[in-house]
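User: Continuing from earlier, I have the next pair ready.

Assistant: Great, send them over.

User: Here they are, in order.

Assistant: Folding the first of the pair now:
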Amino acid sequence: MTISADELLTTTRSVRKRLDLTRPVPMGLVRECLEIALQAPTGGNAQGWHWIVVTDAARRKAIGDYYGRSWRRYYDSESSAGNLFQDDPARSVAQRRVSDSAAYLADRMGEVPVLVMACITVPGGLPEGNQAGLWGSLLPAAWSYMLAARARGLGTAWTTLHLAYEGEIAELLGIPGDVRQGVLVPTAYYTGETFRPASRQPLDEVLHLDHW
């Protein structure tokens, strides 16, 4: 696949309904994407990240079960994607589409052939106050992984609802106590050919020059 940097950055979407749940993903391809992810910035060059790639069917199912339980609570909450922007007809339609596709993935998370979990070592526990420095040393790398996957014909989605069961999943996967989970990225080949840029707020509605 040949794709420009701009197209890659504007068409890497959260893929849910178009994940191919039946086609195996070669571990070598996942490793290529992770090698690229390791080039992302990290505070102090500490490189405290760890990557757990789950392909075992039983473990994937268990993680999927936890994710589904968390999804059902989230779906009924006021902050659920489908409940946002109800007073904006245009945005509410998009939100319902997002909620519908998220529900589809939640029901099938355990069937996705590869689950990639990005984690980071936190020796003294999570810091109080603003944690941007900590997560800023992990999450850009996870996004780089997703971009690299898209360039190789793989679909991914950014998910965090599993964190409601972080302790249980840590026990399931043998994650040490000083390692925290940041994001769960389901990974599979995608079906279809094209992705389009998403509808976003106009830049001038969110841009502030020199002051708020």
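And the other member of the pair:
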Amino acid sequence: MSRILIVQGHPDTTRPHLCHALADHYREGAESAAHEVHQISIAALDFPILKSQQEWQYGDLPATLESAQREIQWAQHLVLIFPLWLGGMPALVKGFLEQVARPGFAFEYQDNNPLGKKGLTGRSARILVTMGMPALIYRHFFRAHSVKALERNILGFVGFTPIRETLIGSVETMSDKTRLAWFRKLRRLGKRAE
């Protein structure tokens, strides 16, 4: 049994989106295998955007994000779900990660190590990204640059490993059959906690 945290990063709370359905199916699969699952909806949180390095390093974590840090600390496996916007994660997701992945929590500075000490080791992650373009084009032509940066520069930097990705493209033209196939795949991933 694993402790799984699903972080729903779709910024629109006015109606359900594919990201929400994918999270639901992952959760169903995980719970059917007796994994313990918690979920955070970033769009439901109220927090400011950081505006300086000083604020990031030494400022107080907003009280609205204290429970998010506790949830990340609790989790053995993190599932981060968001739509691709302008080639990267939505600003709300980036702002959330900047706030919660602070020194003293996500990593520690060390004088003899320019990379610091990773604070979130022993955890795995899956990044699930939906997009309008075909996933093959994003992966091969654009080299999935923003997802690779998230894997290496944020999650990997603070200790998550392994980090797996699921890229779901052509969402606006997706057939019902393809959508159901993705839902089945997400339930299988949830059962395996990967």
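Worth noting for the second one:
The helical segments are 18-32, 53-58, 66-74, 91-100, 135-141, 145-158, 176-192. The first strand starts at residue 3 and ends at 8.
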